[in-house]
Design a protein that fits this description.
Distance between the termini: 42 Å
CATH architecture of the largest domain: 2-Layer Sandwich
Largest sheet: 6 strands, mixed
Number of strands: 8
Number of helices: 11
Number of domains: 2
Strand order of the largest sheet: 1-3-4-2-7-8
CATH topology of the largest domain: Alpha-Beta Plaits
Order of helices and strands: HHHHHHEHEHHEEHEEEHE
CATH class of the largest domain: Alpha Beta
Strand content: 5-15%
Length: 304
């Protein structure tokens, strides 16, 4: 039986950035369709190629090319599907450049030459639609306030990591994070201040984890963290560092008011052969114990 390939983790984009990707990729498909129709008409009718089609760097000067090679979020630029789009786009325009020169020189277009061009069109469209589908999926599963994944997206990610653990024997850990005394922030400063705290905490957490670690908003002020290929002692070290950093970080909730918040954590191994909720419950038990022991600490399941 063929091994199932690991799913690529989508880059850590906030909702606004993911919406931009959806918009730009949609524009890419629209402009590509217009360009393809115009280019095929040139091939059939043997009209004079545009100067842009005769330019070897034409792929960088299209509307899509200017976006793709411009200021794009670093996490997106590192994504394999994003890189694949660029390769297909450049290859397609390279073949178009050769076809344009053939038409300009009034030579016959070979069957193999034309077939390669048509195939490149299909590959480019497929690569764009693949990332577009991922972007839409991310928007459906992204918490609009904090920009982290939602609880509904969590089960599939857990199952992916359990399968990886069964197949490769790699450890994986699940952590639970709960902000201490969060209700008092809402009661004292209002829900707008509470939302600001959640937004900053989520952003800080994302910014201080690895690209392939995952963060989910579990509910209210509670977050779940997933650490692939990480032993539990390493996960505890990471969470301790995160806890200390959060405690030191000032969060502006008014013109002259900064808050400092603390968080409690529980961490457990993700069990590969048990329901994911069991590992989550273990991490939750460790979190509960951390709260009971005085908060602002990390405890590991099983408890000593």
């Amino acid at each position: 039986m063929a091994k199932k390939k690991d799913k690529k983790a989508f880059p850590l984009l906030n909702t606004e950035e993911a919406e931009e990707v959806v918009h730009e990729l949609g524009r890419a498909l629209d402009s590509h369709r217009d360009w393809t129709n115009r280019f095929r008409k040139m091939l059939v009718c043997r009209t004079k190629p545009k100067a842009s089609d005769l330019n070897a760097d034409a792929y960088k000067k299209t509307a899509f090319g200017r976006w793709y090679y411009g200021k794009v979020h670093p996490h997106l630029r590192d994504h394999p599907d994003f890189r694949a789009i660029g390769k297909h786009h450049e290859h397609m325009h390279g073949l178009a450049h050769e076809l344009s020169r053939t038409i300009r020189d009034k030579e016959n277009v070979g069957i193999a030459q034309y077939d390669a061009f048509v195939e490149s069109i299909g590959c480019f469209r497929l690569s764009v639609r693949k990332l577009l589908s991922e972007s839409w999926d991310m928007l459906r599963h992204t918490d609009p306030l904090t920009g982290v994944l939602t609880r509904t997206a969590m089960q599939a990610r857990f199952e992916d990591e359990q399968e990886r653990a069964r197949r490769n024997g790699q450890p994986c850990c699940v952590g639970m994070m709960d902000l201490d005394h969060f209700k008092s922030i809402n009661d004292t400063y209002g829900h707008q201040a509470g939302d600001k705290v959640l937004e900053v905490v989520a952003g800080y957490t994302l910014g201080h984890l690895r690209n392939y670690d995952q963060v989910f908003r579990y509910g209210g002020e509670e977050f779940v963290l997933l650490f692939p290929n990480t032993a539990i002692d390493r996960a505890k070290t990471v969470l301790d560092r995160l806890r200390r950093g959060l405690k030191r970080k000032p969060i502006a909730v008014g013109k002259k008011k900064n808050l400092h918040v603390s968080a409690s954590f529980g961490v457990a191994d993700l069990l590969p052969d048990c329901p994911a909720k069991m590992s989550l419950e273990n991490a939750d038990q460790a979190l509960y114990a951390a709260k009971k022991a005085g908060r602002n600490r990390v405890l590991v399941w099983p408890l000593a």
